[in-house]
Amino acid sequence: MPFESIHPKKLSTLVVQQIESLILRGILRPAERLPAERELSERLGVSRPSLREALADLQEKGLLETKASSGIYVAEVLGSAFSPALIHLFATHDEAVFDYLSFRRDMEGLAAERAARAASDSDLKVVQAVFDKMVQAHSKRNPRMEAALDAQFHTAIIEASHNVVMLHMMRAMFDLLREGVFYNRQVMFKQRTTRSALLDQHRSINKALQAGDPVAARQAIEQHLDFVKIAYADNQRSEKNEAIAKKRLEQELITQNNNPKSPNR
């Protein structure tokens, strides 16, 4: 007969499964500190020995790590998504930036489409709350804050798509962006016209998501990242032109100093 005996799971196993699920779904994030042992055991309703057994298991799996005199943290499991050699290649070749933006356009367009269909009321409230912060930050002209909120907004959309593989993959991509591997996103928020355009684009994305319109949500994301791509190319061109202009100026000053009869002296 196709029957198997049922074995009750140990409490420590149930704790492991719950924490694993929280990490998988992105609720517990890399480098996030877990509550103290006593508090965590009370929240989970298990004894401290059972909790210790579960935490040891999770550390052995590489999902948690202990920091001396600090506590237990979610491991930086995304750090291994790209090898150091590949990260160096990304950082030293301009073409990687444009491929990165094209990849984001495809992935985030899909995520926005899925989010417009699958997002719960709570998901949409998170997206709305982040966008509201973006509106408030816009008047403060703080590029660092605006760049951080921009990342939060896009991450909230991916979380709302409820695809855990996409979530962790895109978080790894955003980590590289935050570290300046591809480009400095704060540059985008230093120019007045660009800042206003970016806010309007995020407003359109949010509006489509709140309305549950998958087609509009995807289009809004794609248009936004097309704009970012063009803005980055323009900024890159301006920096190169400025570098050339500085060399011309330097040469002109040298010429003037070497020619005492120059009309400008």
Description:
The chain has 265 residues and is mainly α. The chain has ten helices and two strands, in the order αααββααααααα. A hairpin with a 3-residue loop joins strand 1 and strand 2 (71-74). Helix 5 packs across helix 7 (143-160) and helix 7 (143-160) packs antiparallel against helix 8. The longest helix is centred in the C-terminal third of the chain and has 45 residues, at 214-258. It is elongated. 22% of the residues are buried.
What is the structure about, briefly put?
The protein has 265 residues and is mainly alpha-helical. It contains 10 helices and 2 strands.
Q: Radius of gyration in whole Å, from Cα? A: 25 Å
Question: What is the number of E strands?
Answer: 2
H/E order of the elements? HHHEEHHHHHHH
Q: What gross morphology would you assign?
A: elongated
Biggest sheet features: 2 strands, antiparallel
Uncertain parts? none
Gap from first CA to last CA: 104 Å
Mean pLDDT: 87
Strand content: under 5%
Indicate the multimeric state.
single chain
Give the fraction of residues assigned to helices: 55-70%
Give the count of helical stretches: 10
